[in-house]
Amino acid sequence: MTFGSPWHSALNPAGPQAAHIARLTWILFWTTTAVFVIVLAFLGWALMRGIRRRRASAPPSSEIALTRSVAAGVVLTVFIIIGLLVSSIWTDHLLTSVHASNAISVAVTGHQWWWEVEYEDSTPSQRVRTANEIHIPVGRPVVLKFTSTDVIHSFWAPSLHGKRDLIPGYVTTDWIQADRAGIYRGQCAEFCGKQHAHMAFSVVAEDEARFERWLDAQRALATPPSTEAERKGQEIFLTRTCSACHTVLGTAAHGQVGPDLTHVAARGTIGGGSLTTTHQDLVSWIENSQATKPGNQMPPHSLSPEDLDAVVAYLQNLR
Amino acid sequence: MNDVRIEGDQYNDALRLKRTWADPTGVVGWFRHIDHKSIGRRYLLTAFIFFLLAGMLAALMRIQLARPDNTFLGPDLYNQIFTMHGTTMMFLFAVPVMQALGVYFVPLMVGARSIAFPRLVAFSYWMFLFGGIFLFVAFFLNAGPDVGWFSYPPLAEQLYAPTKRADIWAQLITFTEVAALAIAVAIITTAFKLRTPGMSLSRMPVFVWAQVVTSFMVIFAMPAIMVASTALILDRLVTTHFFDVEHGGDAPLWQHLFWFFAHPEVYIIFIPGTGLVSTIVSVSSRRPVFGYLAIVVSLAATAFMGFSLWVHHMFATGLPHLGEGFFTAASMMIAIPTGTQVFCWIATMWSGRLKITVPMLWVLGFFFIFIIGGMTGVMVGAVPFDLQAHDTFFVVAHFHYVLIGGAVFPLFAGLYHWMPKITGRMLSERLGTASFWLFFIGFNLTFFPMHILGFEGMPRRVYTYPAETGWGTLNLIASGGAVFLTFGVIVFLIDAIRSLRVGVAAGDNPWEAGTLEWATSSPPPPCNFVDPVTVASGEPLWEDPADRPIVVGLRNDVRDVLVTYVTDASPDHRIEFPEPSVWPLLTAIATSAFFIDSIFTPWAVVYFALPLFVAMTGWFWPKHPGETGTRVWPFRSRMLPKPNEPLPAGAVR
After folding, report:
1. Which fold does the domain B17-517 belong to in CATH?
2. Which of B28, B281, B295, B608 is the most buried (most CB within 10 A)?
3. Global pTM?
C-alpha cells in the first residue's frame, strides 16, 4: 500500500531503505491498531458491565478469573513486544547492509542554512562541488558522509531514507539509493537556528547516462560571459563583495562562505530551497535576501537596476 | 465524628488546635504561609496560569502554521515562542502541577497534620514562582530563549547564540530543579514517615505511591540536567569547552546528559497521572483498584526503565547498532508495566459498580488518547521507524498524545474529583461534560493530523513551509482543532469560577470515596484532621467506622506531629513542626538574585553568598525554649494506643 506525495513521503518509498522502513511502519501500524481496538473493546465491555452491576447493586465477583485475564493480557503484551522487537532489529539489519562495489561517494556538509555537496574522486580535479541539489544515478547505492561546520543539522529525504545527523566534529555515514527516477525533496530535520525552516534540498535521481553527463558538466570551469551584460555582470561580481563569499571556478572568485556558484544556473533553487533560479527570484535574492530568509548570512546589496540585471544575466549563464 | 465532645478539656479543643496550625493572616502574613494546603493551592493556581500562558503561545504557533508561507510571526519570534511553549509546559506546568497535587493531597491521604519540611515546601513555591516570572519577563523584553527546550549545543553556545537568551533558559532550569527537588524530598518524607498509624506501605493509596515514585525519579534525574545546564552556562560565561567542538569539547555529550534527565521527565509527568487514574477508577467503580500490588510494582518498574531509554532520542546521531538495539528493547518494554496498569483499570471497572461522573469522563478520554500515544511510543522505539519519525510532526503528535493524554486528561479528572475538597464546592456536571467534549474533540482534531504530516515530511520547529509541500490542509485542520481546545479550557475556567461563587456545597465526602483526604471537612481545617484516624485497610472510609480508632496524645498548643515507622506505620515519636516564617521567602529572594545575576557575572557566586548566608541563618535560627509555650510534655506516656485498643479518657470520638 502506498499513498502520499511521490515527492517527499515516508509512505511512498522510492528506494530500498525507505521501502524497508515503510514495511516496518505498516507492521507496527496494523499491530498497534489491532491492540488499540481490542483494548478499547474490553474497556467498552467493562464499562457496560460495571454500569449494569451498579444498577443491579451486584455483589463483588470472583477475583481469580480476573487475575487470570489480566495475567493473560500481560503475557500477550510481552509476546507482541518481542515480535515487534524482532521485526525492528531485522529491518535495522537490512538498512545497514550495503553490498555494492560500484557505490558513489558524496560528502555532505551542513551550514546555517544550506547544504554543501561534494562528489569525491581520487583525482582532485574530478571532484565536484555544488549546493542543495544532489544528483544520483538510479539503482546505484550512494554513500553519504555527513559533517557540519557550525551547528547540528539532520539530513532527511523521506522518500529515500530516514534521518542522519550532521554533527560538528564527527563524520557520520549512511547510504541511499533511488529505484526510480524523480526529484525527491528533503529538509533539515534538526533545529538549527533562525532559518531551520528554509534549509531544504533535493535529490535528483536520473538514469546513469544523464547522471554522467551532469557530472561532466559540473566538472567543467564556469562558462565565460559572452554578451555585454554578462561581461558587466561578471565584473561587478568580481569587484564587489560577491567573490568574497562565493566561488566561481575559472575566475578569481574563491570565497568559501556561501555556496559554490560555478554552475548555479544548472540548479533549480537557491537559498536552501527558498527561491528558484529565475530572473525575478535572483534579483530579489541579491537585492535583499533578508526579506525572503531573514537571518541568513548574505547581506543586502544596493545595486542599480541595470547592474542587478547584469549580475543576474551573468549568474544565469553559469550553467 | 465529633458528635461527643468532652467539655472543658483543653487538650482536645478543636478550636485551639486549628488556631495552633493556622497560617498568619493579613498581607504580611500571606508571605509567611507554610500550610501545605495554602502552598499547594498557590502552586496549583500558578502552574495553571503558566498552562494558560503556554497554551496562548501554542495558539500563536497554530495561527502561524495555519497556512503556508504565513508571515504572522517571523522566525525570531516563532523560535522564542516554541521554546517558551515547550519550556513552560514541561518545567512550569506539567511537573509543578503534579507536584502541587502531591503537596496538597499526600499529607491528607496519609492522614498527616502537615507535609514534612513545610518551610522547604514554601521555599520551593517561591523559587518556582520567581523562576517563572524571570522567564516571562525575559520573554516580554524580547530575551526569551530561542534555541528549543532541549537547547542543543553548539546552537546554544556563545558563538551561535550570542545574546542572553540561552542563559535565561539554562538558569530557569536551575530554578525549577531546586523547586522540584525540594518538593520531592518533602513528599518522600511525608509518605514514608508521617503516615497515620495502621497505614502500612501495603495500605498506602496508589496516588501516594505514584507521588513517591515520581519524587525518587526527580531526585535521580535532576542531577544530570543540573550538571549539563551548569556546564553550558560555564561554556557561555567563562569559556570552558564542555560542548565546544573546536576546542575539544563534545556536542553529543549534552544530548546524553539532557536526555538522561528529559526522558525520565516524561515519566515524572505521567506517573502521577496514572496515580490519579487509579484513584478515580477505584472511586467510580466503588471498589479498591484491582491488582494494587501489580500497579505499584508497575509504577516502580516504569521509573526504573525510564532511566534506560534516553538514547531513543538520539537514534539519528549514528550510534553503534548493538546499543540502538538495546534501547529499542528498553523503549518497547515500557509498554509492559503500562499495559499492566491499563488491564488492571479495565478489570476494576469490569468487576466494580461503575458510575460515570465528570472525573470518570476525563479518565475515559485518557484511555482513548493515552493508549494511542502509547502505541505510537512503541512505534518510535523501533530504530528504523524512528529514523523517519524523529524530529517530525509525527513525534509532536506522539508526545502530545502521551502528555496531554497521560497527564492533562488525568489532571482535569483530578481537578473535578478534588476541587470540591479544596474549595468545598462542587463543579458543574453540565459544564464539565461540555468542557470535556470540546477538549477531547479539539485535541484529536489538532493533533491527529500531525501524525500524517510527519509521514509527509514535515519537520518540527519550522516557522513556515512552502505551499508546494502540500502540508497546508492538514495544518489548517490542526489549527481549527485548536479553537475547540481553547473553548474547552475556557468552559472549564467558567465552571471553576462559577463553582467558587455559587457551587453546591460539597460536604466531607461527595464521591463516597474510601481514602483519608475525605475523612475531614471540605476545605480541610489548618490541622488537616481534628482527630487523625488510624486505618486498618487501604480504603478506611469504606470500612466500619468502629474499626477507625483515632490518634490521641498529640498536643494542640504546639504543632505536634506523629512520626511513624516506614514499613508498618507504627508510632515512632512525636516531633514539633516549625511555625510560619518569612525566611523561606527571603531565602528564595536571595537565591533568585544569585541565580539571575550569575548569568551576567561569575562573581555573583561570591557576593551573593552573603545574603544567602544571612537568609539561611535566619531560617534555621534555633527557637528559644519557651517561645511556643511550655516545653514540658503533659502526658504520662508517649506511646499511642494500638488500633482497636480502648482510648484513654478524654479522647474525642
Report:
1. Cytochrome C Oxidase; Chain A (1.20.210)
2. B281
3. 0.94
